[in-house]
Amino acid sequence: MEEDLHFKIQMQEMPSAPTKPLIQTSTDEPTKLSVASTSESIPLQTSNYDLNRASHPKACIFTFLFKGLALLFYLIFGESIWSFILVIIFSAFDFWTVKNITGRLLVGLKWENIILEDGTSKWEFYSMPNKQINTVDKTFFWTAQLGFTLAWAIFTFSNMISFTLMKFVIDIIGLSLCWTNLFGYYKCNGDHKKKMKDLQGDITNKVVTQFVGQMMSK
């Protein structure tokens, strides 16, 4: 009995641990805050070749498809007549598709080379100044034009040195069609930039003229 009483007295005399104040945490917003901080600290890296971000994914595919098929059959059949036929067919398909469809959809440009009555040619360029160009569309388009033109140029130079006549003729066909589209769109893009620069200059002149007129009328 005395031991129980002595144990109770000791328990009463022991200092109690200081109680820490309770901190109330809200469960409403922590997830949102952590996501926001993560996205700000680690920016997402996106690729300019991601078709999921393209405005016209089918046009991006077709701007590569016919070029790729022509080059593929060239590599498979070599100097055979099938190589000659298939390269001409798919290069022609690609030339028409890029000139009339994919160029307009992907970069908002179109070119024409008109033969006049006197036998001279005239370049005409069309552009869509209000069209918002998608970065992925633009990257696919110019990569296809530059890449395949360069590939045909390498094959042409190689077969010209090795005096492989049949392959050299096929190379000239593939190179000429790819180069024509590349050159046409290069000139068309330059014409578009010049028009946009002139348009911005006209707008600036009009704004300055109106401002000066209002100041003079006061």
TrEMBL record:
The keyword Secreted does not apply. It is a multi-pass membrane protein. Keywords: Membrane, Transmembrane, Transmembrane helix. InterPro entries: TVP23-like. It holds the Pfam family DUF846. The chain crosses the membrane at residues 81-98, 140-162, 168-186. The keyword Electron transport does not apply. GO terms for biological process: protein secretion; vesicle-mediated transport. It comes from the Eukaryota. It is found in: Membrane. One of its GO terms (cellular component) is Golgi membrane. Belongs to the TVP23 family. This is Golgi apparatus membrane protein TVP23 homolog. It comes from Paramecium pentaurelia.
